[in-house]
Amino acid sequence: MKQSSRPRVVKIYSENNDFQYAETLRRKREKRLRQREFFVEGVRPINQALQYHWHIRAFLYSRDKPLSDWAKNILNSSQAEAHYELPWHLHAKLSNKSEPSELIALVTMPDDDVSRIPLKEDLLIVVFDRPSSPGNLGTIIRSCDALGVDGMIITGHSVDLYDPETISATTGSFFALPVVRLPSQKELVTWIDILKHQLGHIHVVGSDEKGDCELTEHNFKQPTFLIVGNETWGMSAAYRELCDTVVSIPMAGSATSLNVACATSILLYEISRQRHLP
């Protein structure tokens, strides 16, 4: 809903409570979870957050340097509650980049609700169990966005979805793809059972070097949940039992496995290829 008044402008001159709040959001997972808010900087991520209608509570910027037309336009049309003006040295200290972004945004976390994922007849959802690397998680989110995935589910204890490193690794795709965190595979099983009644058959496909068949031999045109295992341990026994099929990626050379982000991208490319065949 459009606000009737302009954002309030708050001038910061020292490392006061407002500064420390934003700085702690950048560094501390516990703070982000408690406040349901996270830290975003960079042109593309902020553009994507605005394009996909994420709620931005506040913008921070330096009053000591002229702003670009891009930054001015965003601030002029801002629906944020507050704009924080900082001296350059504090803005640079707050930034997580070697070359600080003009704008920093404090963005509200959406609810972890599977209803955020749109349901389609050719539904494609990636399930990542216990991801441990922000880079891998962010790269997979980017591949999901590029290759037609409708949403991602993260289960179990994992790296923080809202870590600035995760968001940076997505290069903006973070805001385009619904990503929902669930405590375990048990909650996922409940949702899959509901979807089977709504959509008919749902195929749950895992990936492992000892699969039932190679990925090109499996028909991915039906509604699919693609299970991606933990980087170190792979799929858990509970997920393997849940799978209807486990596929493998054929490899040559001495390598016996692939990085999880690389493997997921290959799997998603094959799914996209099959679904675009005449």
Automatic annotation (TrEMBL):
Pfam families xrefs: SpoU_methylase, SpoU_sub_bind_like
**Domain SpoU L30e-like N-terminal, first and last residues per copy:** 16-100
Q: Which GO terms describe its molecular function?
A: RNA binding; RNA methyltransferase activity
Could you provide one GO biological process annotation from this protein's UniProt record? RNA processing
Q: Which UniProt keywords apply?
A: Methyltransferase, Transferase
Transmembrane ranges? none
Q: Domain named tRNA/rRNA methyltransferase SpoU type: which ranges?
A: 124-269
Show the SUPFAM superfamilies listed in the entry.
Answer: alpha/beta knot, L30e-like
| Domain of life of the organism encoding this protein | Bacteria
What PANTHER family does its record include? RRNA METHYLTRANSFERASE 3, RRNA METHYLTRANSFERASE 3, MITOCHONDRIAL
Kindly provide the name given to this protein in its UniProt entry.
rRNA methyltransferase
